[in-house]
Amino acid sequence: MQTRLLINKLSVNLDNNVLLKNIDFSLKTGDVLAVLGPNGAGKSSLLKSIMSHYNYPIKSGKIVLNNKDITNLPVDKKSKLGLFYCSQNPVELDGVQMLEFFKVLSKENSKNFYEFYKNLNSAMLEVKLKHELLKSSVNVGFSGGEKKKNEILQAKLLQPKIMLIDEIDSGLDLDAIKIVADYINKNKKNWITIIVSHHIDFLKNIKPNKSIVLVDGQIAESNKKDIINFVEKNGYSSFFEKKLRPIRTLPIMCCDMKHGKK
Predict the structure, then answer these.
(1) pLDDT recorded at residue 118
(2) In the prediction, which pLDDT does 255 show?
(3) What is the DSSP string of 26-69?
């Protein structure tokens, strides 16, 4: 079943600061949206607000998943609907053993322990994580690269519908970046992918089919052809004076389509 995500006039405020203003875009399964912009433009704020992070309260607008308004759902319910957030700063869970953590994650996707362990073993080999880490607490004592690979490992076991990838390539060596990029490329046709990165080569490897440039929390450019190459050559200075414009790839539909409302 195809997944459709609509972000409609999303605005996010923290205290008196405007983090995001009137963000508009829509995506479907197989779309890869690159979110570009200078530091402090609102890129991470966008992903975290979609995921209902408590520090990024939504002031107005809607998040609609398959015609259902999920704007104000808590993070756990959004996760169960298939949203997965890959953090640029994965948290440590001291006292929570990796193996037990993965058992809980895989409960709904595995019929028995044998199938669970087979899937886990295969996934760890693919992302090149050492099996000894299963005895450790989640991310405790892990290197930066191991923490990022662990994010991808979790995604492999959960099989999400929407991947929110927040600078997962930062702090990785070249081999680890290739592992992450290869996994995204192998599976992106099955997801909606929204990816934030400052590494142009990484984005070129992923080959997003859609893009937005954020400046001061607003969309300054969207879906411009060769926008990644343009940013690589020219930076972001030219976007500060541009007229803000929305990105639309699907018609806006409300969550109550069975009553014929639009």
Answers:
(1) 86
(2) 41
(3) EEETT-EEEEE-STTSSHHHHHHHHTT-TTS-EEEEEEEETTEE
